[in-house]
């Protein structure tokens, strides 16, 4: 059992709002976390992938009315979209009786349908939290390389061997393509989506080029965009948006795409161990994506991530915008003797960030000049988490 950062925040959210939606990919630990929080209060767990539990909700309003005194956990709630109108009525009924929080915890493997349905029916009654794969602070620095190579899905990280971990991730990918994706939209050919997912792994951290992707897949740009939106809404791919400001410069306006879990990047490329990863051209981009996901997992939720790139070559890998407008410029290098390029300094001249950090795989923090601090990933994660 890993100590998840979200544990305390989830409990606080349940105590503050009638309903909480906990979103995240399959097998990331949502059910485990939900049951752990439920230990502290009267609760009822229903798995909507179970025919027996779905049958209990044939008369959902009647059944749930008998359990207004409990926290009701509805797992894979997207399988019963008709529930949302029922929950709205029951929440309002409980409010009139004086109970204003702690009624429903909704678990979902995707954001798209769940957000749409709950947004239509539970506005003002629900809060949203996202649980991602394990991050470096949750597993500890001793597993730094294992977390990068195997990714943050608990079963993959804890597998007894590198081969078993790779097999788990490949089965995970196959299950998503063949069983889970068809639940969330029009029928998509599993082979086409897998090919796109693999292309994105090869181009990890690259600029989105829908025309080229469409040409490679043999489909039109609209179809490519729908596939990418689906993978993004399934919380498997991140679109990192470019920073825009009136700086008098021509800025890149195309987003970058990252497969969010580094272990899935490696599984899509059939890289089973660290040696295989180190010998593959994706190594630098994989490590960059790994760092970005860990930093964003540890940053406060109100921090907004971007990257910065101008037509003149000024560039920052990760730009964090804090409430109030302060910027942190973060460069990522996989080298024990990292050097900053001119593009980073030019970007900092444009942006005037309050913090300039270079993340590298070493163990010590040290100043590099020009107000730049070289820092290990774990140290910057901890600083963001405790900010």
Second-tier CATH architecture of the largest domain: Orthogonal Bundle
- What integer is the average pLDDT? 91
Helical content stands at 40-55%
Number of domains: 2
Structural write-up:
The chain is of the alpha/beta class. The protein folds into two domains: 6-130, P-loop containing nucleotide triphosphate hydrolases (Rossmann fold, 3-Layer(aba) Sandwich); 136-385, Arc Repressor Mutant, subunit A, CATH 1.10.10.10. The protein is built from 18 helices and 14 strands. The chain has helices at 6-16, 30-38, 51-56, 60-65, 83-96, 112-121, 136-139, 144-150, 154-157, 162-180, 190-202, 210-217, 221-233, 262-268, 274-278, 283-298, 342-351, 377-385, and strands at 19-23, 43-47, 71-75, 104-108, 126-130, 206-207, 237-240, 256-259, 304-309, 315-321, 327-332, 355-360, 366-369, 372-376. The protein has a six-stranded mixed β-sheet with strand order 9-10-11-12-14-13. The protein has a five-stranded parallel β-sheet with strand order 2-3-4-1-5, with helices on both faces. Strand 9 (304-309) and strand 10 form a beta hairpin. Helix 8 (144-150) packs across helix 14 and helix 12 crosses helix 13 (221-233).
């Amino acid at each position: 059992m890993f100590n998840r950062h979200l544990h305390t925040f989830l409990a606080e959210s349940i105590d503050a709002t009638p309903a909480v939606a906990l979103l995240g990919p399959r097998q990331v630990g949502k059910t485990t976390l939900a049951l752990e929080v439920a230990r502290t209060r009267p609760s009822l767990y229903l798995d909507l992938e179970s025919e027996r539990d779905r049958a209990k909700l044939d008369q959902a309003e009647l059944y749930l009315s008998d359990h207004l005194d409990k926290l009701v956990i509805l797992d894979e709630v997207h399988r019963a979209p008709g529930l949302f109108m029922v929950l709205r009525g029951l929440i309002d009924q409980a409010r009139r009786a004086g109970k204003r929080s702690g009624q429903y915890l909704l678990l979902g493997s995707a954001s798209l349908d769940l957000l749409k349905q709950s947004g239509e029916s539970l506005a003002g009654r629900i809060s949203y939290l996202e649980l991602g794969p394990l991050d470096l602070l949750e597993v500890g620095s001793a597993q730094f390389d294992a977390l990068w190579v195997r990714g943050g899905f608990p079963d993959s990280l804890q597998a007894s061997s590198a081969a078993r971990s790779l097999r788990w991730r490949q089965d995970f990918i196959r299950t998503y393509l063949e069983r889970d994706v068809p639940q969330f939209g029009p029928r998509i050919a599993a082979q086409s989506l897998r090919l796109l997912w693999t292309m994105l792994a090869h181009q990890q951290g690259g600029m989105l080029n829908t025309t080229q992707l469409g040409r490679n897949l043999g489909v039109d740009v609209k179809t490519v965009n729908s596939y990418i939106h689906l993978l993004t809404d399934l919380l498997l791919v991140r679109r990192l948006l470019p920073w825009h400001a009136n700086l008098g410069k021509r800025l890149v306006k195309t987003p970058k795409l990252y497969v969010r879990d580094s272990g899935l990047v490696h599984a899509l490329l059939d890289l089973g161990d660290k040696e295989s990863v180190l010998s593959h051209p994706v190594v630098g981009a994989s490590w960059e994506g790994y760092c970005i996901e860990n930093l964003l997992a540890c940053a406060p939720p109100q921090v907004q991530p971007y990257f910065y790139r101008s037509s003149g070559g000024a560039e920052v890998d990760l730009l964090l915008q804090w409430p109030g407008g302060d910027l942190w410029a973060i460069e990522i290098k996989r080298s024990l003797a990292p050097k900053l390029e001119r593009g980073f300094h030019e970007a900092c001249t444009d942006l005037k960030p309050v913090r300039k950090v270079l993340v590298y795989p070493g163990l010590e923090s040290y100043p590099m000049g020009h107000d730049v601090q070289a820092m290990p990933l774990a140290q910057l994660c901890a600083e963001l988490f405790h900010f």
